[in-house]
Amino acid sequence: MNRLILYFCGLLACLPADAMEVRQFDDPAKQGRYEDLIKDLRCLVCQNQSLADSDAELAQDLRTEVYNIIQSGKSSEEAVQFLTDRYGDFVLYRPPFKSITLLLWFGPFLLLAGGTFFLWRQARRRAEPAPQDLELSAEERQRLQQLKDRFQG
Amino acid sequence: MATLRMRFALPLVVFVLLVALLGVGLTLDPREVPSPLIGKPAPAFSLPQVAAADRTLSLDQLKGQVFLLNVWASWCVSCRQEHPVLVEFSKRNIIPIYGLNYKDGRDEALAWLKHFGDPYRASAFDEDGKMGIEWGVYGVPETFLVDKHGVIRYKQTGPVTPQDLENKILPLIRELQGAA
User: Where are the domains of chain B?
Assistant: First the structure.
């Protein structure tokens, strides 16, 4: 039993398998900016992971680049610019506001507006009194009679 | 009567639009990230060659001609699939092909070239992958087509197939070689 408990304790110790290496900063503010940045940048190899999460070699290299830029005293924007110059907007988890991303930014609101309009129209139609002219026309009466004759006769 | 038919047709129309949208989504390759470097001057580099550490390969040496730069590594599995295509293509002597040996060991790289053939005029030895980052490399193999003015005109991520060469790359090469 004790052995089993020990075994599970050992498993727990393995859990925080961090993809990240230890980085030394001369300023805690820089460290904060670095950590925020790599969470917001996408790894190009494991495309659904951020640079912070990814264990891919390219992600490590790019973390080093970001680290060097931040550590050298440059702004976060410069680090982002460095990556978008080489890899495009794809590396950004927050897409920039551009003409080609208009649909991305406004699409959900358009859908919401469309849905609201649809519901509003439905509600109004339901609130309307049922149409009164349920009388059959002469032509329809004639067709009904034909059908009745066929099935009853 | 007409409104009733509309009511049945509307979900169908929405469904067809949705299928079309998802269909287009399925045919797109999410691994293909458009490079911002296309149409821009190729990033400068100067690195030792794979074949000899004391010789360098730099962008300045390559300028003035249309050339292909193929990113490869001995650890890259898809490169193995692509390599015979490049070897065959180099024999046609249409365009010089240069290599960018990405994050590899010199011995492994040389053994690989010896075993699979060497289509490259020369390969730059990018041991730490810095040049790869400059060129926006994220998935080896990658192939860049650079024009006479040193501007990147085309990039392919992933192995080049004979179809890619004939249908996409070759026409572009001829166009660029014909241009002033």
Answer: 46-178
ipTM topping 0.90: no
Number of H helices, E strands in chain A: 6, 0
Residues of A in contact with B13 (CB under 8 A): none
CB atoms under 10 Å from CB of B99, counted, come to 27
| Class in CATH terms, A17-91 | mainly alpha
- Residue B127's contacts (CB-CB under 8 Å, 6 or more residues apart) are B103, B104
Q: What is the dihedral of CA A65, A68, A69, A74, to 10 degrees?
A: 170
Length of chain A equals: 153
d(CA B84, CA B75): 16
Rounded to two decimals, the pTM is: 0.76
Contacts of A87 in chain B (CB under 8 A): 33, 35-36, 136, 138
* Cα B140 to Cα B69: distance, rounded to the nearest angstrom: 12
* B37: nearest CA partner in chain A: A86
The whole-angstrom distance between residue B53's C-alpha and the CA centroid of its chain comes to 25
Q: Give me the mean pLDDT over the A45-51 stretch.
A: 86
Q: Looking at the predicted structure, is the pLDDT value of residue A16 above 90?
A: no
Is residue A91 within 8 Å of A77, Cβ to Cβ?
A: no
Pairing of strands B56-58, B46-48: antiparallel
| Domain range summary for chain A, segments of one domain joined by + | 17-91, 97-130
Mean model confidence pLDDT for chain A: 84
Q: Two tokens at B126?
A: 């990018």
pLDDT value for A134:
72
Look at A86 and B129 and tell me if their CB atoms are within 8 Å: no
For B46-178, CATH gives: 3.40.30.10
Residue B136 in tokens: 């926006």
Residues of A with CB under 8 A from a CB of B: 44-45, 47, 57-58, 61-62, 65, 84-90
Provide the strand spans (E) within chain B: 46-48, 56-58, 67-72, 97-102, 123-126, 142-146, 152-157
